[in-house]
Design a protein that fits this description.
Length: 177
């Protein structure tokens, strides 16, 4: 049994995509600048571990060194293709089971799950306790979806909704257990 809870803090288009099919998030960056304080910094301050998917990790690296806002927190990348020595700041895990085992052994308490496949894996494993979803007022038509197939329905409890700058809407849910 894991000793940690995972949270999702992510932006989507109104039609539910986190990126274009090729991974481009230009629409998110363009609109996101208008949002103002999204609460991300406060959220991140309460996180001790970050888990990224390979595509999210590689996208983050493409933004340059200033984009690495994780400080000395433990950062894990869940990937079957990324080399183990891809970056000295991360630990690469090949499976969800291995990742969960490592996070439990490390004493992780609050994990930030980021990236479409990672979020879906954490949801299927029953490890997500809270979802902060910021909806960007744009339809992109196709792309990488945030959510995917589940074993069963997950009931959510609405905590709050606020309108941010630029018409972005942020909603926080907890997952009922």
């Amino acid at each position: 049994m894991s000793t940690f809870v995972a949270s999702v803090f992510i932006g989507t288009s109104v039609d539910g995509f986190i990126a274009r099919q090729d991974g481009d998030i230009d629409w998110l960056n363009e609109h996101g600048e208008k949002a103002g304080d999204t609460g991300y910094d406060a959220f991140l301050a309460g996180v001790d571990t970050i888990v990224l998917g390979r595509a999210t990790f590689e996208k983050l690296l493409s933004f340059g060194p200033a984009a690495w806002t994780y400080g000395d927190r433990h950062v894990a990348v869940l990937s079957t293709t990324l080399p183990d020595d891809a970056d000295p700041r991360v630990t690469v895990h090949r499976s969800m089971d291995a990742l969960t085992e490592t996070l439990t052994a490390r004493g992780a308490r609050h994990v930030y799950a980021d990236g479409g496949q990672v979020v879906q894996s954490f949801l299927r494993a029953g490890l997500v306790g809270r979802i902060t979803l910021t909806t960007v007022p744009v339809l992109i038509g196709t792309g990488i979806p945030l959510f995917g197939a589940l074993v069963s329905d997950l009931s959510l409890t609405h905590e709050s909704t606020q309108v941010l700058g630029g018409g972005l809407v942020q909603t926080v849910y907890t997952i009922e257990r």
